[in-house]
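Notes for week 9. Today we move from apo structures to complexes. The key idea is that a small molecule is not decoration. When we ask for a structure prediction with fe (ii) ion present, the ligand SMILES becomes part of the input, just like the chain. The input block below holds both the sequence and the ligand string. Read it once before you look at the output, and try to guess where the molecule might sit.
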Amino acid sequence: MSVSDDHRLAMWLQVLKLCRLQPEEKVVVLSSESSHPFNVDAATRAVNRVSPHTVRIEIPPIPPHRPGSDRTAFLGTTPLSGNTLAVEILKRSDLIIDLVGLLHSQEQLDVLASGTRMLMVVEPPEVLARLMPSEDDKRRVMAADARLRVARSMYVTSKAGTDLILPLGQFGTLPEYGYADEPGHWDHWPSGFISTWPVERAAQGKVVIDIGDMLFPIKRYVETSPIILEVQDGYITQIDGGFEAKYLRRYLESYNDPEAYAVAHVGWGLQAQASWTALGTRDKQQSLGMDARSFYGNFLFSTGPNAEAGGRNHSACHIDIPMAGCTIMLDDEPVVIEGVVIDPEQRVDYTK
Ligand SMILES: [Fe+2]
């Protein structure tokens, strides 16, 4: 599937409208050598149509830290690190279109704290076109956010054997609905999920990553046998299973960082247009995997840092693990049952 030039421009204009971009606002389109050229072209043209106060900044890439991996494989150090000029310009803008995939860093937190809103866009145009955000996505994600914000525990189970208790309340939430419309809000097109971080050193139980669940940035389904993670006092203490368990063990060991074993953000997917099958049909190097992270009703478990939430864990190693078929309870009330979103406020209304 390809996306025509006109279609790309139209979808970018639509997303900028959702971002409430105004003609008097200052916009930076941030790109690097790794940015998708069609995204750079369409974003720049669309932004220029709305606001004359627009610059495109091309920042130098940082050397690859991991073999054959994408931006999510080494967090904390970004092309912005140490680039004080770029950071100053970004702070003075109202909206940043991040085509680099900066992800979480102190520099980004500083920019957002200045009130600048930021939209990261890394996936190729055909994924962007299929996963266009909508106001209804925001409504449902923010309904989930309202539930999660006040919850003091998340309890996750599955037929595969997951039985995980996650005390909550130390950190805020991370709602992602696909566009950046509020001052200081960071978002990612495409997305559509809610997450938070458990209280440090408090998660307890077992996570069974079943056949068909996925590992990112390794970008593969578990195919041979489930991976069993024992979690004690907020950290993975044991990894059992077959080939994929061995791979995960080796992958985590390669960072030589005890903090890589911490439980990081946890939440659930709310994007009904995202596809569980996408990882099997997409070129893995061309895609970040947002279908997998966002698909409707998945439990998104992850490992590594919580520094973006204000926590103490700065590990560069971060693994996202979308899991199907889980039941998620908040303070003893289910929001997802066996992979089905049940909260009426979060469900997609197919009758509209
Ligand atoms: Fe993540």
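The chain is about 25% helix and 25% strand.
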